[in-house]
Design goal:
Elements lengths: L6 H13 L3 H13 L5 H17 L3 H18 L5 H16 L3 H19 L4 H16 L3 H22 L5 H15 L3 H18 L4 H16 L3 H17 L6 H21 L4 H27 L14 H12 L4 H17 L3 H9 L10 H20 L11 H10 L4 H16 L4 H12 L5 H14 L1
């Protein structure tokens, strides 16, 4: 049967099982097909490609890579190195290597795919643009923003020229605009990111109408608007995104749920802006704030206790109450909006298997490359350093001056774990404090004084000065 070309029916039947969420059944069917097509290279190559997808769905990444590598070698001979099938498998392999954390291997395959497309179809081919879009993902994931931007801008230019000639935009242009928008958000250029998300929404609404991709672009725009503090338009845009997901039958998808959470954040921020400053509202707000802080600190504590330490459990990990006090102090000056956004960061990290404490300490020891390069990282760290210097000058016995830069390094490594939205809100908090004549560092140590039973910061300083004189 396979020799007569009917193997593609068996292949499609197996892939249908994968589409139905049955990767184990798909794997079994494809292994049966592979045993019967040893002498048909194209059959074997395509079956291996499908098997790789099924294996990856079962979290068998190493086996999936091996299957794709064999498929790629077979297709290079059976279909040619620049055939769409070969290039497709090459890009799938690059994506899989990226998911496994092999940035260099993924980028090398992506570069090979771009060169093959250029050689076979010309430098201005839409196939080259597609290969550049895939390649940009490796640089984006490795936070090489400049190279990722170059790939995306070149791909965008190719698709724009093709659309000018044909009058029909390529659907991948929407993905390109989305990714560029996200890239600029990561770099702290929110206005540029928002402008690109608007273009992606307009393109997809025009070409696709109500579609999952349209909903995704609306969601990206809504999140970017919220990050810029444009809560009203952000809420309306996120409402449209969720409605679009529901319209296409994807209302319970992970993406739709994520945008619902961002919509709730926008609505709470709008309520906070319009809430009357009554005593009852203030009391309710304080209770809510304490609830936010409690959940944040407990989630941080779980991460802290799970952080490995050379030589076994660290002594500080055996004192959770001290950890709670120090983290409560750290978060004291932050606004409710910042706390809500950071709590979402923690929840998202937990779902993704990330541990902010491990990442922070690994960065401090230079065991990880930078986790972000937003200009806000230095803006916040510099502002907090100035606040600390001023606070230390006034309360030198409690707030000891740091001449080594350790405080700034610690803070910056912690800031790198935060989302662009939380960084933006944090920076707004510091700017507001400066305009109001407040010092967040003093607010933190005043909180510490209360938690330690010292009363006021002034009393804490007098007690520390007396202890120092006694020694």
């Amino acid at each position: 049967m396979n020799a007569n070309g009917h193997w593609n029916e068996e292949l499609q039947a197996a892939l249908d099982l994968l589409a139905q969420g049955r990767p184990e059944d798909c794997t079994a069917k494809l292994r049966t097909l592979l045993r019967s097509c040893d002498n048909a290279p194209l059959c074997r190559a395509m079956a291996l490609e499908g098997l790789a997808r099924a294996l990856f769905a079962q979290r068998q990444a190493a086996e999936a890579v091996a299957a794709l590598e064999e498929s790629l070698a077979l297709l290079g001979v059976a279909a040619g190195p620049s055939s769409p099938l070969t290039l497709g498998v090459m890009q799938n392999l690059a994506h899989l290597r990226l998911e496994m954390g092999d940035f260099e291997g993924s980028a090398a395959l992506g570069q090979e795919a771009v060169k093959a497309c250029e050689s076979a179809f010309g430098a201005q081919s839409p196939r080259v643009a597609s290969a550049l879009l895939h390649l940009s993902a490796a640089y984006y994931r490795n936070k090489d923003w400049n190279t990722a931007e170059q790939c995306l801008l070149r791909a965008r230019s190719i698709w724009e020229e093709c659309a000018r000639i044909s009058g029909v935009p390529d659907q991948q242009m929407g993905t390109c605009l989305n990714n560029l928008g996200r890239l600029y958000e990561e770099c702290g250029q929110l206005d540029r990111g928002i402008a690109l998300h608007r273009k992606a929404v307009a393109l997809r609404q025009d070409v696709l109408g109500d579609h999952e991709d349209t909903a995704f672009s609306l969601g990206n725009l809504g999140v970017a608007l919220a990050s810029a503090g444009q809560w009203d338009e952000g809420a309306r845009t996120l409402e449209a995104a969720v409605a679009c997901y529901e319209c296409v039958g994807k209302g319970t998808s992970r993406e739709a749920e994520s945008y619902r959470k961002n919509l709730d954040l926008c609505r709470r921020a709008l309520q906070e802006q319009s809430a009357p400053p009554a005593a009852e509202s203030a009391a309710h707000g304080q209770d809510e704030r304490e609830g936010l802080l409690a959940e944040i600190i407990e989630r941080e504590l779980v991460m802290f206790l799970a952080t490995p330490n050379e030589g076994g459990t660290a002594s500080c990990q055996q004192q959770p109450d001290s950890f709670r006090i120090m983290r409560r102090m750290v978060h004291e000056p932050l606004s409710r909006a910042s706390l809500v956004s950071y709590l979402e960061d923690l929840r998202r990290a937990e779902s993704e298997g990330r541990n902010f404490m491990i990442e922070k300490y690994a960065r401090m020891d230079d065991r990880l490359p930078p986790l972000g390069d937003s200009p806000l990282l230095d803006v916040i760290a510099d502002a907090e350093t100035v606040f600390m210097r001023e606070a230390s000058a006034r309360y030198p016995h409690v707030i000891v001056s740091d001449g080594s830069g350790a405080f700034k390094n610690y803070l910056r490594c912690e800031l790198e774990t935060l989302s662009p939205a939380t960084l933006e809100l944090y920076a707004q908090d510091l700017d507001r404090a400066r305009r109001e004549g407040r010092n967040p560092a003093m607010e933190r140590y005043a909180c510490l004084a209360r938690l330690l039973g010292k009363g006021s910061l002034e009393n804490f300083e007098k007690s520390a000065a007396h202890a120092a004189a006694s020694r």
